[in-house]
Amino acid sequence: MDADFELSSWRKKQAALLYYFSSMDYLLGLQKRLLELRGFSDNLIDVSQTQGRDRIIRKKSRWGHRDTTQNWVANAWHFLADFQLAITRDIADRAAQIYHVTGAYQCGRGMAEYSTQWMALEEQERFDKMFAELSEYAGNIDDTMDKNYHVSRWNDFGLTMAWQEQKQHFPMLPKLRVHTDVVAEHGRLPPKTGVYVSTDDPDAALQFAWTGSVYGKLLECSTFNSLGKAALKKVGRSKLWLDGQAMLDFVIENQDDPVLKNDSFFEDSFKPNLAPSLVAGNAFTSHPSSWYYVEIIKDEFEPVEAELEHSSDETLRFESGSICQKAGMYFTPARVDSRRRFELGERFPEENSQYGKTIWQWDGNQT
Description:
40% of the residues lie in helices and 15% in strands. It has helices spanning 9-21, 24-51, 53-60, 69-74, 77-93, 104-111, 121-145, 156-166, 226-235, 244-253, 258-261, 275-280, and strands at residues 173-185, 194-198, 207-209, 221-224, 284-287, 290-302, 317-319, 328-331, 340-342, 359-362.
């Protein structure tokens, strides 16, 4: 990693997520889930036709063939088939550095227009559950690849929720290297396909961009507005969005903020489970940015650092004997010329001095 640009623990997790969601393995996982859904639906069709359900439905229904298996096969089934073809195209296009949204949303909207009354209740519940899980899985690809807006669909809140859902896949983080010599501008295609980090905004969400099509451009960066920065400073990185009570305390403390008060859900959000969403709905803005390329180093890994309670502009302080939670340069007033680098997991030493306890402090100069 370039010495003058070090990724924070949280930014490393963002990069790991984006590389994961853009990977061929993740796309093949979507294909596998769709094949399982198609197999399940095809089996239901066979069962329905064998049992003669359509004949019974036509007798009892005043809607003619609308609720029949035949109608669903003739219309809704083709949305699943088209979805499968789209994924096959997506897999082939990866060789040319071209990426796509998945089409899961369009498939769901199309199928919703046709009745599933020909299914038994437990069959429909399982079908709906399988498609909901597939859609949620596909949504991570869509949020990564959708370039139809001026700003990325991923913001700090969304990435935090995604990390909570996906962190079991990351017992170790991939090693990353920031290339400050590979610079991209928003609104343009990047010089390399991959993840990019804002050059000048430490709170900006990372983005994925690609070189093979005009849709691979970098967008404006999603970052905190004044309310979001206040929430981060008050609650701390480790609790932001995740600690409902801490977020509720922040809402109560800032209930006269006009941005929050003008939210249509303001009056109903004074609950720990709703306060994070209230703040998140009003905590972000965007602006143009330059971007540095973040390379993922193949087959090299590092430990997952715990998020610290401190906000990004606070000084990190650790007593001797405690474990380093963020690798970097530290110093202690207990000894002259004490400045040195500590690695993640390394224990801070005691210094014999008249100052009493040895406190190691994060050095603002990390070069």
